[in-house]
């Protein structure tokens, strides 16, 4: 094998971190821009800055520079910056604006708080024409504007809308070309013995040989863990995967978060023979399969941790010790997952399915307690009791839906009333036009009083854009009767309702006694309000 010279701990193009990137000059400019912003009137347009970067290279613009440029653009436009949605290490091709952590929060929950979205360049904002079209529709619906620092984009004009579509099309073509190149590279690497891209399988790490090429070498710690696991699996009384993990963690050979299922997948990976593999999802079972080269033979990329005989004998041992458990259900075996929690450790209760002598059994167990705690053999009865308790407490609550109300009409009405009040007050001043006769004065005073009453009757919040809760005529009981347990589980998880499960051993009885305690947040009515997703029908 070629000589190992250096181990790589990360890829050459690392993810960007904004920490310590602000220089003294940058901070001084930031304070200057904030002081200028403080002089703006209260009714100045509000700007949200969108900063995004996937990978920092010599050709990209850092988040610090993007933010400062956008703040200067906001100053030129006379806008007050109300927030910075900074989404770093995020691909615009893979993640649309409404699904990004920070920008998505502003779009979905804080739409009334800003008037414009400023971004450095269109490809910093979106890279798909469909995403751009969705954002344009969203902005027109909510009366918002998109503004780019380096592109002629302004949704308030027809020319701006045409320009944003043209530029967006160019960005999508560029993104498609990049995607094609990446896909082609991955397909090419599958046929090469040299390691070009990707994360090595457990047991290997990347290194650079004397010729400067990237190769795979065996990780010494993982080698010890794998060979010890094979040794105990080959015994007459083989050790379980759970037992293997406990010993390996205690010996410091594996991470404490290692799960038994993960360790089994590692032991079953053909990559341990030094071959190139790819993921093979078949029937809900996560496995890897060998990639064959042009001649129909496996592609060797490293020395094998196990020989072929050692690997195949290990698989036979694992097959013999396995219990032939049923295939994992892609939709999940546990209903109300995340709602039902263990009273002892606070972890989620899960349903474990076992198969013995041709019969299937289902037990509700704890995810962290030793051996799952006392398993309850009647999950469906527990589900029914939980449904009954939830319906009793929350079933009669009205279904409220959050709707967006724009205050443009209310603002116009308020402005018109204020101008009319000012007009009549000026006319009633000494020497004014309404003070010439008693009749005109009394009529003007009566009209002024009526205008003031109308002005006072306007809801102080109505002139501003806002969210309001509207009853859709249904109760949650009827909603859950239509949607079933799945709809109830989704709502309870969204609201934060928990159900503590306490299991107590009963003498002479195998099944434990189950006690359930429903835990409902104090602000449950506010949390129950349904928030319509403006982007739900995009895909």
Summarize the structure.
The chain has helices at 24-38, 63-77, 101-109, 122-125, 129-142, 158-189, 220-233, 241-250, 260-267, 308-321, 379-394, 408-427, 438-457, 476-495, 524-528; strands at residues 6-7, 46-53, 80-88, 116-119, 145-148, 204-208, 214-218, 277-282, 285-290, 340-342, 349-356, 359-366, 398-405, 466-475, 498-506, 509-519, 530-531.
Description:
The chain has 539 residues and is of the alpha/beta class. It has four domains: 24-178, Resolvase, N-terminal catalytic domain (Rossmann fold, 3-Layer(aba) Sandwich); 204-321, Hect, E3 ligase catalytic domain fold (Alpha-Beta Complex); 340-397 and 469-531, no CATH class; 407-464. It has helices spanning 24-38, 63-77, 101-109, 122-125, 129-142, 158-189, 220-233, 241-250, 260-267, 308-321, 379-394, 408-427, 438-457, 476-495, 524-528, and strands at 6-7, 46-53, 80-88, 116-119, 145-148, 204-208, 214-218, 277-282, 285-290, 340-342, 349-356, 359-366, 398-405, 466-475, 498-506, 509-519, 530-531. The strands form six sheets. It has a four-stranded parallel β-sheet, with helices on both faces. A hairpin with a 2-residue loop joins strand 11 (349-356) and strand 12 (359-366). Helix 1 (24-38) packs parallel to helix 2, helix 8 (241-250) packs across helix 9 (260-267) and helix 12 (408-427) runs antiparallel to helix 13. The longest helix is centred in the N-terminal third of the chain and has 32 residues, at 158-189. The two termini are 50 Å apart. Mean pLDDT is 80; it is low at 1-17.
Would you spell out the secondary-structure blueprint of this structure?
Elements (H helix, E strand, L loop, with lengths): L5 E2 L16 H15 L7 E8 L9 H15 L2 E9 L12 H9 L6 E4 L2 H4 L3 H14 L2 E4 L9 H32 L14 E5 L5 E5 L1 H14 L7 H10 L9 H8 L9 E6 L2 E6 L17 H14 L18 E3 L6 E8 L2 E8 L12 H16 L3 E8 L2 H20 L10 H20 L8 E10 H20 L2 E9 L2 E11 L4 H5 L1 E2 L8
Parallel strand pairs: 2-3, 2-4, 4-5, 10-15, 13-17
Antiparallel strand pairs: 1-6, 6-7, 8-9, 11-12, 13-14, 15-16
